[in-house]
Amino acid sequence: MDTQLSVRGLVLKCLSVGEADRSLVILTSEGQLLDAWARGARRSRSRLISSTQWLSLSDFHLYAVNGRLSVDQAERIEAFQAVTTDVERLTLAAYLGDVAMDLARAEIPDPVLPRLLLHALVALGRLDRDPVIIAHAAAFRMTACSGFCPSLDRCGVCGDIVDSQAWFSHGRAAVLCGKASCRRDAAASEPLHPGLLQCLRHILGATEESLFSFRLSEPVARDFVALATRFVEERMEHRYERLSLLESFQSFGGGASPRKDASASRTSEPDDRDCGRQSSGNSDR
Known about the structure:
This protein has helices at residues 81-84, 87-106, 112-124, 131-148, 180-185, 194-205, 218-236, 241-252; strands spanning 3-17, 21-28, 33-38, 57-65, 68-78, 166-169, 174-176, 189-192, 214-216, 273-275. By secondary structure, it is α+β, with helices and mostly antiparallel strands. The protein is elongated, with a radius of gyration of 21 Å.
């Protein structure tokens, strides 16, 4: 029996099949992953050619025959062109798509996941923001909201409230207080700059609209990227090759910093929080 389905979704994977078809993985607005077939979508005159491209947000009309979904009609709403025309931003968007697919497969469908991803893609397209920091903040928040939320207020060993002096234990996914006995009890802990702790708390507690409204000094930015990368990969239990690809791009281009030139950013926006900014007046993110 044929069934029909109308969904709004983001194309997270698009594979060319045969002479003109596409195989799609769509993340719906409800957080569900759908595998769908777009017949003839690669033909130059196909009405599906743009709406089924990778990273297209589209309204899909699907029909199912014998359990297999096919695209009948689709209308593209957003193409995220500012992201897809820049190699660094495109690679980071692909990384976020990989994380989102892993989380969507592992969890009960949750509309929070696609909302966070869409906010991240919009932020990635802004030239006044560091795309590397945005991507890692989004991956950290998406992972935390999918059942892997770290404890950032109380020590993961003794339960005391943690203020400024703090360490982070990846094994416990929690902050640790300054007591040596707590750090000995939790292997592989690392010290947290006060600005980094403030940043992590902002990422977990901010609204989706204000999630990316913060700036980091260069040393704190490096520490944040390293911590967020490890946190996500240990929770997902595998490495993300997109990040290795990004590092190779940066090395080839002569820049391995997790940020861009600070001159490209606007530091006067009233909604921005400064996490770990240096007293010397450093204006980077």
